[in-house]
């Protein structure tokens, strides 16, 4: 049986100081990563941060310039090893699914099996089609399937040979928005049911946070932070991670003996996570997300700022308020307020948790 996500199961994939340089350009500058048995880990980061290059080095499609990759205890790259992709027990689901159009769904799924015409293969294909909910579609060709169904076939095909590690490169980018949200849940269910160890790559934070057991946030060829979705979202360790996740805003604050002074008033110093004596007198930037702040109408004389924009997001409303120091913060409201643009408002901190902060730039 597999370990539950987050537990200290055996590590199936280990990257040690993996680097990739192209001439003078560094794509990946030193990645250390351990993925546990049965875990779904997502590499998340902006375009060009090295996610795809990292995935390709695990797959064997790109050779690392330095460092080592170990899959299920076997050294596959670095330290003299250079195992080709087809000899690694690593499966890959590509963005465009890469199904064979002239083969049926069942034939596509059987493709990676040692003896695709055998009875054992037929049984395995049936098992996989059931897992992905396509029992009735085995005889169709990919052209006669929806986008979501094609993705399920791609997943079934890559799971069929029971890879030690499954890699997913931007797996939802070819699906429309609604289907994407539905397939996230479905792909997670399938991976968990298969018990496979998986690494996916995305630049979509919502996707990463919703499907993963752990998320590794990459920046500039390195992993900046790695942790459970709630951990990285609630406790971003760097300004980069904070800025990348959620609708982050930063409130300038001067740290006093027992209070912090901000453009929206004075608050207890205990509000700042882990702040110590040595920071007294310093100015820092406090991470505030829209749900940490609320605006109320007030007279000009008492205003913290002015409403500069209203954003309707469906279930909620976000009001952008420009503070006296020129910074703009966003306030999340569950109901429409009748704020006019330019209206003076008081902004209050309603966070029920300590706030992360970073040295001012
Ligand atoms: P995206 O989300 O846009 O796919 P990414 O995070 O996957 O981005 P990579 O594709 O890994 O980023 O690229 C990382 C860096 O390495 C980029 O600056 C890219 O230009 C560079 N790079 C990638 N492949 C090559 C190559 N074959 N030759 C030269 N430079 C490359």
Automatic annotation (TrEMBL):
* UniProt GO MF annotations: ABC-type tungstate transporter activity; ATP binding; ATP hydrolysis activity
Q: Classify the protein's membrane topology as the record does.
A: Peripheral membrane protein
Please name the Pfam families in this protein's record. Answer: ABC_tran, TOBE_2
Question: What's a GO cellular component annotated to this UniProt protein?
Answer: ATP-binding cassette (ABC) transporter complex
Enzyme Commission no: 7.3.2.6
Enzymatic reactions: tungstate(in) + ATP + H2O = tungstate(out) + ADP + phosphate + H(+)
On the tree of life, the source organism's domain of life is Archaea
> What does the record note on quaternary structure?
The complex is composed of two ATP-binding proteins (WtpC), two transmembrane proteins (WtpB) and a solute-binding protein (WtpA).
The entry's function note states: Part of the ABC transporter complex WtpABC involved in molybdate/tungstate import. Responsible for energy coupling to the transport system.
Q: What's the protein called, per UniProt?
A: Molybdate/tungstate import ATP-binding protein WtpC
